[in-house]
From TrEMBL:
Iron-sulfur among keywords: yes
Keyword Iron: yes
Lineage of source species: Bacteria, Bacillati, Actinomycetota, Actinomycetes, Micrococcales
Protein name: FAD-binding oxidoreductase
Key words of the record: 2Fe-2S, Iron, Iron-sulfur, Metal-binding
Matches recorded under InterPro entries: Cbr1-like_FAD-bd_dom, FAD-bd_FR_type, FNR_nucleotide-bd, MRET, OxRdtase_FAD/NAD-bd, Riboflavin_synthase-like_b-brl
Domain FAD-binding FR-type residue range list: 21-122
The organism's place on the tree of life at top rank: Bacteria
Cofactor: FAD
């Protein structure tokens, strides 16, 4: 670690224990096309590893002067070996996401600065949990789900994902596997550009029928600005308390995403 500062992270209604934020060296271990627009990046620490809470993100820096560092959520709960997975959407004209998709190679060294963010579970809450994600918003909620299923198995966890087509269903196999192994976990999805699927409405319009009353629930919402804002309004209408709703907006004004090329 080369620098250390203190970053206080705060959830919707409670202070989260402060973790030391700093910069950490990582090596690229895995590059895998995860959907037509998303590359999965697996990183292994070189030396000391980034401490973080499930749902937090880090600033990723590459060793290129013209490629600015950007925030990426960590898609797994903390592991003893410090390995982390990121899911990176490729945006048209996006400098850093484009560089990661086109130029990042296995064996490259990158820097993670963190931990940052407040999309973390409130330890004082004990009720059911609703996770809502669109696109790469699935990264932080996936980490939260993994952690809650292991540490608080009495809590029901429901994950609802919004994708465009079946090919955009990030981590579908993993979530279906978790659903088989944990009876308290349920996973469902809606496809906004495929009307043949069971659900093809937008998440905010489905919640009333799918779940109903959300009083007493802890809710996590992550994705683009429009998804997050519309979902937040919908869960409030259904009775979720503002203090139990955690949100993370990824990109204020996303431009069209580009199809990924296969990674060698
Ligand atoms: C807390 C947090 C967590 C995040 N986690 C993830 C994650 O897990 N996965 C993920 O893929 N992304 C995540 N993001 C988004 C990520 O940080 C970057 O914003 C994203 O990768 C785009 O960066 P870029 O450099 O490729 O694009 P940029 O070069 O910054 O541009 C992004 C897009 O916006 C357009 N644009 C740029 N500037 C303007 C402007 N002024 N007006 C209009 N349009 C403009 C560009 O043309 C481009 O299409 C997260 C963001 C935050 C804040």
């Amino acid at each position: 670690m080369s620098t250390t500062t203190q970053t206080a992270t705060r959830s919707a209604n409670t202070d989260v224990q402060t973790l030391a934020a700093g910069t950490y060296r990582y090596r690229v271990e895995v590059l895998r096309v995860a959907s037509p627009v998303v590359l999965e990046v697996g990183l292994a620490p070189v030396g000391e590893h980034l401490p973080f809470r499930p749902g937090q993100h880090a600033m990723l820096g590459v060793r290129e002067p013209d490629v600015p560092e950007r925030a990426y959520s960590i898609a797994n709960a903390p592991r003893p070996d410090g390995r982390v997975r990121l899911l990176v959407t490729r945006y048209a004209g996006g400098i850093t996401s484009g560089w990661i998709h086109d130029r990042l190679a296995r064996g490259d060294e990158v820097i993670l600065d963190g931990p940052h963010g407040s999309l973390v579970a409130d330890p004082s809450l004990d009720g059911p949990v609703l996770l809502l994600a669109a696109g790469c918003g699935v990264a932080p909620v996936s980490a939260v789900a993994e952690s809650l299923l292991a540490s608080q198995p009495h809590r029901e966890v429901t994950l609802l994902f919004s994708g465009r087509t079946p090919a955009h269903l990030l981590q579908r196999t993993r979530f279906e596997d978790l659903q088989r192994r944990h009876e308290q976990f349920s996973y469902d999805f809606t496809l906004t550009r495929d009307r043949s699927s069971r659900w093809h409405r937008r998440v905010p319009h489905m919640l009333g029928r799918l779940i109903g009353d959300l009083s007493g629930w802890e809710v996590f919402i992550a994705g683009n600005e429009h998804f997050v804002r519309a979902s937040r309004d919908a869960v409030h209408v259904l009775g979720a308390e503002a203090s139990s709703v955690h949100t993370e907006e990824f990109l204020a004004d996303p431009s069209p995403q580009l199809e990924c090329q296969p990674v060698s």
